[in-house]
Give the backbone structure.
Amino acid sequence: MSNTRAVPDTSVSSGAFANLLGMLPGVLLLFVVGYAGKFLEQFIARYGKTHHLVLPNIEYVLWAILIGLLISNTVGVPKIFRSGVATYEFWLKLGIVLLGARFLMGDIMTLGGLALVLVFVEIILALAFMTWLGKRFRLAPKLVSLLSVGASVCGVSAIIATQGAIDADEEDSSYAIAAILALGAVSLFLFPLIGHALHLSDQAYGVWTGLAVDNTAETAAAGALYSDAAGKVAVLVKTCRNAMIGFVVLGYAIYWASKGQASGVENKAAFLWKKFPKFVLGFLLISTLASVGFFSKTNLVALGNLSRWAFLLTFAGVGLRTSFRDLSKQGVRPLMVGVIGEVVIAVMTLALVWGADRAFHL
C-alpha cells in the first residue's frame, strides 16, 4: 500500500491571489480619482462660503469623471492600473445592489408598473428605429444588430452578450461599443442641462435618463448630476431595462441561427438565465429585506453610504476608461448612426415621459 500523500494543488488559489493583487493598483487609482472629485466639490463649496462668493455647485460625480477623462486622454492609464480600473463595472453592480436598501418594495411597485410599460415601449421603438437607420447607412447586418441592442437595452453589456450569441465579429463589437461609449460621455453633460432647461421634476428626469442613457454607469452618473433623488429613479428604471437583456439577446440569437449564421439555442431557459443580469436579483433581495424591516436604521444608513462609495469608484472608472483617441479610430458611419439614433431615442423617450408625467403625475 502506497504511503504517498496527495499534495494540494495551490496553483488555482495562488493564481487568484495574484489576479487580486494585480487589480489593487487600479482599484486604488479609482479611489484616489473618486475621492479627488469629492474633495474638489467640498473645497469649492467651503471656499465660496468663506469668501462670500456664489460659485457653481459642481457635483463630485462630474469632477470624478472629468479627472478620469483628463488622465486617460493625456498621460493615459499605464498597464499596471488597467485590470483594476476595469473593475468599475463590479463596483457599479455592487452599488446598485446596495441601493436596494434605499427602495422599499412599495416604491418599486409604484414606479415599476409604469416604468416597465415605458421600458417595453422604448425597447420596441428603439430596436425598430436603429435597425432601419443602420440599414439606411448600409452598415454590416450584425453591426446593425449590435448597435440596435446597445442603444435600446443596456449599452456595452448588451453588445457583449449579443456578440457571443450571434457570432458577430470582434471588430463589429468594437465599433458598436465605441459609438455607445462616445454618446454616453456626451449625455453626462447634455442631459442635466436639458432637464433643468425644461424644469423636469426629479422623478420625471430620472425616468427619462433611465430610458434614454444606454450604459448603466453613465445612467447613474447623469441621474446623480441632477439630484440624489433623480439618480435613484434613473438607476431603478435602468435596472428594469437591464432585466430585458436575456430576452432581447435570445430573440437575436434565434433570428441569426435561423439564417444559419449563429449557433442554435438548445435550451432557452438556460440561455436566459446565463444572460440575465444577476445584480438585478441582488437589488430586489436587499429591497425586500429593507421592506420587511430586516435592517435597522443604522444598517440602512451604512448600506446607503457603501452604495455611494461604490458609485464613486464607478464614476472614476467611467472617465478613466473613456479614450477619445480610441473612439476616433473606430470609423465614422457607426458613430453617425449612433448619434442620430441616440438623439431620436432621447427625444422620443422625453416625449413619452412628458406625456406620462402629465397623465399619471410621475
In short: The radius of gyration is 22 Å. The first helix runs from residue 11 to 50. The mean pLDDT is 81. The chain has 16 helices and no strands.
